[in-house]
Amino acid sequence: MTLARFENRVPRIGRGTWIHPSADVFGAVEIGENCWIGPGARIRGDYGRIVIGSHTSVEDNCVIHARPGEETTIGNWVTMGHGAIIHNATVRDWAVLGMGCIVSDWATIGVWAVVGEGAVVRQRGDVPDGGIAVGVPARLLEKQVGDEYKSEWTRFKEIYVDLARRYPEGWKP
After folding, report:
1. pTM of the prediction?
2. Which residues contact 101 (CB under 8 A, 6 or more apart)?
3. Tally of domains within the chain
4. Range of the domain at 12
5. pLDDT tens column, 33-47
6. What distance in Å separates the CA atoms of residue 98 and residue 119, rounded to the nearest whole number?
7. Sign of the C-alpha dihedral computed for residues 83, 85, 86 and 92 taken in this order
């Protein structure tokens, strides 16, 4: 794991957060408590700032970056699927970002919003609270996230919080 300062920018990692040894976290990065940062993740706060809330999972090979002097903000209880790219955007609490999706500059992903696998949310795009966006470019579906989905995904999210607790002792290189 690369956990490094860059110039005067120093990462701050919350209690109970686990970062895989092959992940890179450097610069102005703040990660909340009980997060799970997966293999190959790159969280780069070299000239922009990254803020990640608590209980969030950043799965394998995700990339998070921000423009100079700007910020990427990811809320609490967010799930970022394998290979997702988030650049200079805002992702609110409980959102689910599918594998391989891209969320581009100044886009906003709402509370409990879903970005489907491989979808591309373009610059300044908006997925409202509970909205579901799919495709390239991403378009909103007519249906919204329902209670059954929230219940199921709450359980999935809790699995990663549990992994953050288990990995420090269970990981044996």
Report:
1. 0.96
2. 81, 84, 85, 115, 116, 117, 118, 119, 120, 121, 138
3. 1
4. 2-170
5. 999 999 999 999 999
6. 8
7. negative
Q: What is the token pair recorded at 107? A: 């886009």
- Token digits of residue 65: 């970056």
CA distances from 147 to 56, 127, 161 (A): 20, 18, 21
**Residue 1 binned pLDDT confidence (cut-offs 50, 70, 90):** low
Q: Other C-beta atoms within 10 Å of 34: how many?
A: 22
We report the CATH number of the domain holding residue 88 as: 2.160.10.10
For 169, counting Cβ atoms within 10 Å of its Cβ (0-12 exposed, 13-18 middle, 19+ buried), the class is: exposed
pLDDT digits (tens, 9 = 90+) for 145-163: 999 999 999 999 999 999 9
